[in-house]
Amino acid sequence: MNQIMETILHRRSIRRFAPEQIDEAALEQILQAGLYAPSAGGRQGVLFAVSQDREVNLRLGRIKRANSNPRMASGGNYVSREQPSIADDPAITDAFYGAPTVITLFAPKGFLFSAEDCAAAAENMLLAADSLGVGGCYIGQGWTAFADPYGQEILRRWGIRTDYYAVMQLLLGYPRPGDPHPTPKPRKEGRVLRV
Ligand SMILES: Cc1cc2nc3c(=O)[nH]c(=O)nc-3n(C[C@H](O)[C@H](O)[C@H](O)COP(=O)(O)O)c2cc1C
Description:
The chain has about 200 residues and is of the alpha+beta class. Helices cover about 30% and strands about 15% of the residues. Helix 2 runs antiparallel to helix 4.
């Protein structure tokens, strides 16, 4: 298996982070992976807002948690047993799980492919992160982290244009020492249709 395939199979969502900040050279490479992702029409419309301010990340993560669907996983229906998500554990108050680096991906409100562009960039970045020993997690519905007066103030502080919206967040940090690397759920059968 080549290295790309190994990384694709190895990557898992990491939600338990060591306290230290990630290496700057690793962050640069992860951002480069995002910048070189495919984009609809080659427009390169995605903006990457990198926040390593723990106070800001915590406050935005709490706002997002408060704005999240309270539906909780139960029984056999769970997101992750090894690295519980907010859907698994009602005691988690920060939807960013204390990640030391939170990158919000913004894209134009009026563009049909904004979400797809961000998802393509995010997966490139998650794979780059895994290959560099950095843990990452994709966080959907990025706008809910800014849905209160503090969030709006942050958007102004960051100079985000009002015709852009927060599509998603990408969490980055080193996995907590001693945590086993999560195992993937078994793949569901019958999803490939050779038509
Ligand atoms: C569109 C999208 C949105 C997601 N949103 C969240 C989220 O809000 N919180 C979270 O903890 N994980 C989120 N995830 C991560 C998924 O829960 C995770 O990818 C899935 O459980 C499979 O686990 P794996 O990434 O380890 O393979 C999201 C993933 C995708 C693709």
